[in-house]
Amino acid sequence: MTVVRVAALQMRSGQEVARNAADFEAQVREAAGRGAAYVQSPEMTGALMRDKQALKASLKPQDEDVIARTAARLAAELGIVVHVGSTAIARPDGKVANRAFVFGPDGALLATYDKIHMFDVDLDNGESWRESATYEPGVASTVVELPFGRLGLAVCYDVRFPQLFRAQALAGAQVLTMPAAFTRQTGEAHWHVLQRARAIENGAFVISAAQGGRHDDGRETYGHSLVVDPWGRVLAEADHDEPAVVVADIDLAAVAEARGRIPNLKNAREFRVEHVTATQGAAAGAAP
Known about the structure:
Elements lengths: L2 E8 L6 H17 L4 E3 L11 H7 L7 H13 L2 E10 L5 E8 L5 E6 L5 E3 L5 E3 L11 E5 L2 E5 L8 H9 L4 E3 L6 H19 L2 E4 L3 E3 L5 E3 L3 E3 L5 E4 L6 E8 L1 H9 L2 H4 L10 H6 L5
Parallel strand pairs: 1-2, 2-3, 9-10, 10-11
Antiparallel strand pairs: 1-16, 3-4, 4-5, 6-7, 8-9, 11-14, 12-13, 14-15
């Protein structure tokens, strides 16, 4: 069977981990009740808080984290794959990871992924973000084998680095994931085109659960959780920033079909970049 029902959870995580865990559980149960065999939550499911000291005080190591434990329990109870888009985890070395988890239908941990690309930017509306001041970036991409296919893991700002997803597609990923907490400003400008581009250029499904709305710490996130097919068509979307459960049926056969129609993964060639100055061009007898 190549058709599977998937779900993306749109959340508005606050600063209270227990409340966020309860919201997460309710949405996972709703998704499973609607037939989803795979459920993805957004980046920072456990908590969104700007205060670094408060964040670090709330952290637990991986095996004690309430979101990870809740996800494992629900995966086993409901017999589904639960993908925590990410949550903050205390590393053994005292640093913090922005970490994704994937639990199988028996509740076993199948894979983790630490966000590689840090959102260190100054936006023109006055927002300034320095994720690298809090989080230790990951160093490895992850593709995980699931009962229905191969899934590539990424988080939020990773979406702007297409080489990550190309490497996953070449490693056999049929579904790419970009759970996020996109700012409203960048989301309004780039969210849809980036998601659709990653799907089109890799001939893969994209599933992206998102945070949405105004959060306890004052930030605003864009929402618009969605599922995109390998031809770049949006199959399902929460076209707002309110909490929601987005469900879609995806047919993995469409991946091979799209890659057969546009075989760019096979057609790619190695090349070099040559820098030519105007003076060099003229000296070489460049055409007018």
